[in-house]
Give the backbone structure.
Amino acid sequence: MTIASGTGSHAEGRSTLASGRASHAEGWFATASGDYSHAEGYNVQTGPTTFQSTVASGLGSHAEGFGNRALGTGSHAEGRLTQAVGDYSHAEGVETQANGEYSHAQGNQTVANGYASIAIGYQNYSQGSFTFAAGQNNNVTGTGSAVFGIGNGGDGNPEGNGQVVVGESNMSIPISGAFVVGNGSYINSTFSNLLVAGGTTVEITGSLNITGSATISDKLILTAVSTSLDFLDDAAAQLGGVPLGGLYRSGSFILIRLV
C-alpha cells in the first residue's frame, strides 16, 4: 500500500510511505519519514528472510538507490546499502557508512567515522576528525591526518596528528606532523617504514642512492661504521660484508672499500 500521511507529502510506486512533512517517497518499499525528506529506490534482500528498504528519516535528507538510509539531518545516501548517519553527511557506493558529522564515504565498504572525515576506495576507515583515507584497507586515527595506499595504519599502534602516510602497511608512530612511507606487506601482515620524516629528523631504513650532489651543513654521524665496521683493510672489510664503495673504519680513520 502506498501512503502519503505527512502534510504536503507525496508517495508513489509500491508500498512506499511519505510520513514526514512535505516529504516524497517513490519506488518500491521506500520510506520518507523525515520532514522535507526524499526517498526513492528499491529494497534489498540482506538475508534469507530479511530486507532493507530505502529510508530518508533525517530532516531534509535524501536516500536513493537500493536499500540506502539517510538518517542524519541534511544527509544523503545513494548506491547500494549505504548509510549516511551523521548530520550533513554523504555516503555513496556499496555498503559505505558516513557516521561523522559532515563526513563523506565513497567506494566499497568504506567508513567515515570522524567529524568532517573522508574515506574513499575499498574498506578504508577514517576515524579521527578531519582525516582522509584513500586506497585499500587503510585506517587513519590521528586528527587531521591523511593516508594513501594499502594496509596503512593497521598495526594498532598510536598515531600522531597531522601525519601524511603513503605506501603499504606502515608501522604507526606517535609523531605529529610526520611524513611516513610504508614498505610493509599487507598480504603477509608485516609492518615497516622505509622513511620517517618528523620534527628535525629524517630516518631511512634501507639504502639511499643519490644521483648528483648532497650537501651536509651540519654533523654527519655514521652509527654503523663507528660501532661495528672496524676492519684492518679492504680484504677484511669485504669479509665483513662491506660492499664496494662502502665506508668502514680502521681505528679512527674512515676508509672506502675499493677492492
Q: What stands out?
A: The CA atoms of residues 119 and 182 lie 19 Å apart.
